[in-house]
Amino acid sequence: MLSQTLRRLPAILAGLGLILSPIADAAVLTPMKAVDPFIGTGGEGHTFPGAVAPFGMVQLSPDTDAECVIRKCYPHAAGYRYEDPTIQGFSMTHFSGAGHSDLGDFLMMPVAGDAVPLEPGDAAKAGSGYRSRFSHSSEIASAGYYAVTLTDPGVRAEMTAGTRIGVQRYTFGRDKPAHLVFDLRTSLYNYPGKVSWSSIRLRADGTLTGGRETRGWAPGRKLFFAMRFSRPLLGHDFRNTETDVPYKGFKGPGRSGSDIAELKGRALVARLDFGRLDAPLEVKVGISTVDEDGAIANLSSEPGNFDAIRAKTESTWETALSVLDVQADAKTERTVYTALYHALMAPSVLSDADGRYRGPDDQIHKADGFTFRSTFSLWDTFRAEHPLLTIVQPPSTTSDVVRSLIASREASPYGILPVWQFQGQETWTMIGYHAVPVIADAYLKGMKGFDANKALDAMVASATYAPYGGLGDYMTLGYVPIDREPEAASKTVEYAYDDWTIARMARKMGRLDVAATFEKRAAYWRNSFDAKTGWLRARKADGSFRVPFDPTAINYGSDYTEGNAWQYSWFMPHDQGGLIKLLGGDAATVAKLDAMFDFDTSKLDYSKSEDIAGLIGQYIHGNEPSHHVAYLYAFAGAPWRTQARLKQIVDSQYNDTPQGLSGNDDIGQMSAWLVFTSLGFYPVAPGSGQYVIGRPFVDRATIKLPNGKRFTIVANGMSDANKYVGAVALNGKPLDRVYLTHDEIERGGELRFTMSATPNKSWGTNLASRPYSMSGY
């Protein structure tokens, strides 16, 4: 599964009459052991190295700075940043690769000795608080496991996680008393007053429970915990460090101290005492958005000690990752398997073991026959993350996703689908109604397990909710006017794509009236495209294009979302043929694509735009609007240019170091792009049922499909010099088109590439060989 030499080693030695010893056999790596969770933890990747199960509710990971405030939290959006020298503690919840910070719930930190500080202290001053220094040389991270030695208390800290629980194991020296500091005040994206309320209670059986409400990125988010210890709790001290007046009907901040069993307030911290220990201390924690009883039930639903939970989670990861059998050089195997690992963290489970969850209306609901999931970064993940799940996960995963989106719509005060939701709460971040293509893509691929009519009704409701993002004007004018709505150019084209997916699904369902309405709207991208200049531009309500206009200006006048005209002038993935005609044909389109990649940005300053990273000219791989652009050469009859650009992107934007992601992973989208691209194809227009062929970056890969079949990709002659595709064969027959269908993959078989040092300029160039376009070519 990894390097071909290692893979063949047992057979080679057996042929020589030798038998591998257990130690030698252990060197044959598995997909799980190829995963390096440190990839993306430095630079702009915003990933975390801690323990998580596939799609787990808990992401137990170290926080190197949980005291950052508002936008200063951007570099620490995942809690951990590889460049930091100290760890403040270990908290239960984290985003993987988000461009915004939040979570970091229920922070725990071990302290050894008689003096137990209850404040984190200054990162620049050792010993000033419970924060500790650490060395990367002491860290270990793998799928489902994390460990580090904390220098100041001299404690070895280990983390593992199940689906709804996290388990911490601390090995203290025997010469000093062992303590834990449990801080309910800290949270990523901190600011004064973020914690609206919190509570902690020591129950008669030794279980510690409580919860809190935070007002951060998602307002009014409630989360509860229940924890048990492997050793008796010998003493405790519950403190409320708040000096303000009581809040929300509390009788008061409560009497702090070691002789009370329950405390409420907005600034709670606890000291937990265990005395001198002759064995490691295990702390098992369950969480729930519902209530303390839900957290207790979740805690009980996954029995076993640290080692048992770790073994179960590692087995689950091995199964999930082994869906791909990749053969490539060691660096590529590490990056591809780590990318798949990152792509399988979300959408995360939210419903409790009994099916209950807290919805966007802040009420308790119960998932009937499915697992409710959340963490929907839909503006990012509709592109490749969700299409990838339809190939590498059982259909029940996508069915859960669709049913969760529909359930969220039913509980929404506005009656629309999620935009950017986590832990069941809506943030209204980013633009579009991109739950729509996720649902449509699933339906059009034949996914079952959800009510299609209910789903389509939810899609139409979202696309016709006039108060949202200028939709009222979009429906009447045919575009979003910039003098009434910010980011209008981007919104117009993103709405048009989403509308096309509604039309596709409605037509297949026979709901022709809906199909006709949204087929018309799918062409609205043209209404913001200035054919005279060749740019997507923002228009005013009177029909004029806004001036002055600079296609290189990022967020120029708020016309675009996290980008400029260079990126957004290509966003009509469902109608690239229509765009090619407006640009003047194939040659003009290829020239403009080349100009984008070759643009000299040395005189432009994008340093203050947080999401603009990974530049290749005006192509910005660190942000999603560019992700399909390299594949667009194939629509213009020049697939060899796609192949060369993909080589340029993969070589410069990904590696197997902490700086291995050029931009935020965005809940798996950057990683899903790499998985698809490494296999040799990419879903440019989810909902089309097609994947545009690029070029592979692995020697061989087999996808173990959910239906039990196998789809194998083979690259003959793969090397750095052979960056072009000389020929392609599908199931032994020459393939002269530049796309695959989802059905072809699902039927199983073999896609074979013959790589070449020189481009094949005749392959896949005629009109009939090109991918789908709504208005043809």
Task: Walk me through what this model shows.
By secondary structure, this protein is α+β, with helices and mostly antiparallel strands. It has 3 domains: 4-30, no CATH class; 35-317, Beta-galactosidase, Chain A, domain 5 (Distorted Sandwich), CATH 2.70.98.10; 322-349 and 360-769, GH92 mannosidase fold, CATH 3.30.2080. The chain contains 20 helices and 38 strands. A 9-stranded antiparallel β-sheet has the order 7-8-9-10-18-14-13-12-16. A hairpin with a 7-residue loop joins strand 31 (681-682) and strand 32 (690-693). Helix 6 (330-343) packs across helix 19 (669-679), helix 9 crosses helix 10 and helix 13 packs antiparallel against helix 14 (512-522). The two termini are 42 Å apart.
> What is the averaged pLDDT score?
92
Number of helices: 20
Specify the oligomeric state.
single chain
Extended strand count = 38
CATH topology of the largest domain: GH92 mannosidase fold
Q: So what's the overall shape?
A: globular
Percentage of residues in helical conformation: 25-40%
Q: Which CATH architecture of the largest domain would you pick?
A: 2-Layer Sandwich
Largest beta sheet: what is the strand line-up? 7-8-9-10-18-14-13-12-16
Rg, alpha carbons: 27 Å
Distance from N terminus to C terminus (CA atoms, Å) equals 42 Å
Domain Glycosyl hydrolase family: 295-756
Pfam families: Glyco_hydro_92, Glyco_hydro_92N
GO molecular function, one term: peptide-N4-(N-acetyl-beta-glucosaminyl)asparagine amidase activity
Protein name: Glycoside hydrolase family 92 protein
Question: How are the secondary structure elements laid out?
Answer:
Blueprint: H1 4-15, H2 22-26, H3 31-34, E1 51-52, E2 59-63, E3 86-87, E4 89-91, E5 107-112, E6 132-133, E7 140-142, E8 145-150, E9 155-161, E10 165-171, E11 178-183, E12 195-202, E13 208-214, E14 221-229, E15 235-240, E16 262-265, E17 268-275, E18 281-288, H4 292-301, H5 306-321, E19 324-327, H6 330-343, E20 348-349, E21 356-358, E22 364-366, E23 373-374, E24 376-377, H7 378-381, H8 385-392, H9 395-411, E25 420-422, E26 425-426, H10 435-444, H11 452-463, H12 471-477, H13 488-509, H14 512-522, E27 529-530, E28 535-536, H15 565-568, H16 576-583, H17 586-598, E29 615-616, E30 619-620, H18 639-653, H19 669-679, E31 681-682, E32 690-693, E33 700-704, E34 710-716, E35 724-730, E36 733-734, E37 739-741, H20 742-746, E38 749-756
Parallel strand pairs: 34-38
Antiparallel strand pairs: 1-2, 2-4, 3-6, 5-11, 7-8, 8-9, 9-10, 10-18, 11-17, 12-13, 12-16, 13-14, 14-18, 15-17, 19-33, 20-23, 21-22, 24-25, 25-26, 27-28, 29-30, 31-32, 32-37, 33-34, 35-36, 35-38
